[in-house]
Design goal:
heterodimer; A: mainly beta; B: mainly beta; 11 strands; about 0% helix
Chain lengths: ~110, ~110
């Protein structure tokens, strides 16, 4: 069974502060993703990575950075958190990203920016 | 407009009954995934289809790329089926990573 774990489960941050969300997968998957979920919007892709030490922009990358220091770990960084970044964030992994593999999601991180 | 349109946006079913959820695509998609988001917020894989039909227990999904739609049928609904169901599709002309999510169908199963 694929395993993707996120930390923290929830976080309250202040506007202008730095926030780091972490994701760890034990699936030996090449691809990792960060999505955000807002009410009425489904999930939207922020950043993704297909190899360690490399990240790519998704559909809504502004205000976010990502880091993939190893195959297993993928972080999402908010350098200057803003109110509009309050959302639930999901990390996911997939084996090849080549269209033949499903996404495996972590349990999500609920971020509240005050 | 949205490339992945889910309907209905909300649905109530009594236990033991069934219904179909639908995703329509405004561009050609090469594959679709269906997920259930449960009451704890976790996203659970249900199906991945590049074509045809798959069945798993009380759930069945069909993907018709030519006619640009996918359906998820739920039969004999149970209380634990409550949650939000998302479809996510991969475009033909985009990189494989680019999975586009619909806005979800909120399903409430009533006793």
């Amino acid at each position: 069974e694929a395993a993707v774990t996120q930390s923290p489960r929830s976080k309250v941050a202040v506007t202008g502060g730095k926030v780091t969300l972490s994701c760890h997968q034990t699936n030996n998957h090449d691809y990792m993703y960060w999505y955000r979920q807002d009410t009425g919007h489904g999930l939207r892709l922020i950043h993704y990575s297909y190899v360690a030490d490399s990240t790519e922009k998704g559909d809504i990358p502004d205000g976010y950075k990502a880091s993939r220091p190893s195959q297993e770990n993928f972080s999402l960084i908010l350098e200057l958190a803003s109110l509009s970044q309050t959302a639930v964030y999901f990390c996911a992994s997939s084996d090849t990203g080549g269209g033949a593999e499903t996404l495996y999601f972590g349990s999500g991180t609920r971020l509240t920016v005050l | 407009g949205d490339q992945v349109e889910q309907s209905p946006s909300a649905l109530s079913l009594h236990e033991g009954t069934g219904s179909a959820l639908r995703c329509n695509f405004t561009t050609t998609m090469r594959a679709v995934q269906w997920f259930q988001q449960n009451s704890r917020g976790s996203l659970i894989n249900l199906f991945y289809l590049a074509s045809g039909t798959k069945e798993n227990g009380r759930l069945k999904s069909t993907f018709n790329s030519k006619e640009s739609y996918s359906t998820l049928h739920i039969r004999d609904a149970q209380l634990e089926d409550s949650g939000t169901y998302f479809c996510a599709a991969e475009g033909v002309d985009t990189n494989a990573y680019k999975v586009i999510f619909g806005k979800g169908t909120h399903l409430h199963v009533l006793p």
